[in-house]
Amino acid sequence: MPEKYIYFDHAATTSVKPEVLEAMMPFFSEKFGNASSVYGYGRESKKYIEDSRDKVASALGSQSKEIFFTGSGTEADNWAIKGVAYGNRTKGNHIITTSIEHHAVLHSCNYLEKEGFEVTYLPVDKNGLIDPEQVREAIRPETILVSIMFANNEIGTIQPIKEIGSITKEKGILFHTDAVQAVGNIKINVEDLNVDLLSLSAHKFYGPKGIGALYIRRGTKIVPFMHGGAQERGRRASTENVPGIVGLGKAIEIANSNIDEYNRKLIGLRDRTINEVLNKIPYVRLNGHSEKRLPGNVNFSFEFIEGESLLLMLDMKGIAASSGSACTSGSLDPSHVLLAIGLPHEIAHGSLRITFGDENTQEDVDYFMSILPEIINKLRDMSPLYEAVKKQ
């Protein structure tokens, strides 16, 4: 590993904050009781679980009894979509989503199509935005669920969730949002947004991996995704991950307490990086909306290069970044999100995602900009297509 190493991939995962780890540690040793047990050890664990549930509810503007802990954001997405689909099958079999969702949503919908459900995948514009009227027009008498992500994990575009929620509420249709990238980065109030179900994951906002949550509005008809015990009020079986739940609660409490200051810092890093790259490097495109985007997200497509080569050369210089979702990093196919916003395959292959976090500084951006143009030039010098462009 290079002597200097900068982490620019916070959309993939974050470190666990020291305060979060400190809060978790006792539950690996002296406070190890099973929260389903009636004796003292169990009651103590149960108390801390409920305390964390209160913290999540406070961050989302919900009631505590509407928060259910899961093993991940992916599980929360699966439960929301499949649980609502099977729970409301007598009412209809139609689901509306978008073409740029995380695969936890897309693959769940693909699975349900094989089970006899019908799914409408709404297209997005060149910035990755959905027009709320598209949702209205796609609704049918048999529509039971709309699932649209809060903010895109690759290009950072933030969707008009409140406007979409108003439409689904008016039509009496359940509305789920995958807010895995949004929680900890955007102020969220589920009542104001008219959201019925919301997924989140602790490791995106400096909490531990392996723990997530699903907000389920009171009265929502949904069947359990996990069967076995009576944990989570009979809705999600499995012995509770007490250390993880405590860590999630602490992490969301910290994130919510300084979200404005955190956002100002990230927006400063983001906007400076966007401006410098666009001004200093030719044949580059910013992906995602220029303003309606996550505070710390930057996504570019560079013509005449391969994204994988770019990532490897950045890594050699001590910078960890990505070309898209960490969940598809082993795939050679171009990003489905970039294709959905209209990029041709060859340009989509040359993408770079930078996602800033708490520890990043202006000096990190200085270093990044000191090496990026040189790397881009070196890679383009290997491209016969770029040689042809230079001769024009």
Give a written overview of the molecule.
- By secondary structure, this protein is an alpha/beta fold.
- The protein contains 15 helices and 12 strands.
- It has helices spanning 18-24, 40-60, 73-87, 103-114, 132-138, 161-171, 190-193, 231-234, 242-257, 259-280, 307-316, 336-340, 345-348, 362-380, 384-391, and strands at 6-7, 67-70, 94-98, 118-122, 143-147, 174-178, 197-201, 212-216, 284-286, 297-302, 319-320, 351-355.
- The chain has a 7-stranded mixed beta sheet, sandwiched between helices. A 3-stranded antiparallel beta sheet has the order 9-10-12.
- Strand 3 (94-98), helix 4 and strand 4 (118-122) form a beta-alpha-beta unit.
- Helix 2 (40-60) packs parallel to helix 9.
- The two termini are 41 Å apart.
Q: What's the short version?
A:
By secondary structure, the protein is an alpha/beta fold.
